[in-house]
Design brief:
The protein is mainly alpha-helical and about 230 residues long. The chain has a single domain, classed as Growth Hormone, Chain: A (Up-down Bundle). The protein has ten helices and no strands. The chain starts with 6 loop residues before the first helix and ends with a helix. The mean pLDDT is about 85.
């Protein structure tokens, strides 16, 4: 029997998805105010820090664009739960890496890892689709979008406050948030994709261009994709 047939388990899974969406986006937003200052400490120039931060943002976005459909296809093969949990753990380790970064190369590596692991947001939407009826999915996607938006509002504000305690403090706090999400998921998150519904990994479905075609076909996802990308 599928554990998600139990109403309490289903509600716990939905709560996890929404809480984790908030925690992960808050963790990302926390580092926004302090990352340029940390870069400036390494390069010694505000102007150089500006364009280097722009490069880091581009690296993160490029990794997310390329890896989102790949990770989505992996979740079709191995299930949603392991992909989501590995992503939470990966983000936690990434923030620790950035908190300890002795140079720009470590920060760049951190941005690349963050782009890859945050690509699992596509799996979050897939998980929600698995456990909700078709007529309720628009509302479910709206809840995830609201969670993302709330996290983006709270994250930079919290990051600015923590930055007063030290430029590395927001990274450590972000690592804790992602770690909490990982442990929370281990305890309450069941698998949503039944074995008989899984599909072999396909590079055709993992093509980033194919993801753009999907957004064109499903206009209701476009706004959420824009929020996630930003």
């Amino acid at each position: 029997m599928n554990a998600l047939n139990d109403l309490k388990v289903r509600r716990a899974a939905i709560a996890f998805i929404l809480v984790t969406a908030v925690l992960d986006v808050v963790a990302m937003g926390i580092i926004i105010p302090v990352l340029p200052r940390l870069i400036e400490d390494f390069v010694g120039s505000n102007a150089d820090a500006g364009w280097i931060n722009g490069v880091f943002i581009a690296l993160w976005a490029a990794m997310q664009f390329v890896c989102s459909p790949i990770i989505g296809s992996l979740s079709d093969k191995f299930g949603r739960r392991p992909v989501i949990l590995i992503s939470c753990a990966g983000l936690a380790l990434d923030y620790v890496l950035m908190a300890l970064a002795p140079n720009l190369w470590w920060l760049a590596a951190g941005r690349i890892i963050a782009g890859i692991t945050s690509s699992s947001f596509t799996t979050v939407f897939a998980y929600m689709a698995d456990i909700t009826a078709p007529e309720k999915r628009a509302r479910a996607y709206g809840l995830i979008g609201a969670a993302f938006s709330g996290g983006f509002v709270l994250g930079p504000v919290l990051g600015g406050f923590l930055g007063e305690l030290g430029q590395r403090a927001p990274f450590w706090f972000a690592a804790v948030l992602s770690g909490v999400a990982f442990v929370y998921g281990l305890l309450v998150l069941p698998e949503s994709l039944a074995p008989e519904k899984r599909m072999p990994f396909s590079w055709k479905r993992a093509n980033p261009v194919g993801a753009l075609i999907l957004l064109k076909r499903h206009a209701e996802l476009t706004g959420l994709a824009v929020v996630n990308f930003l």
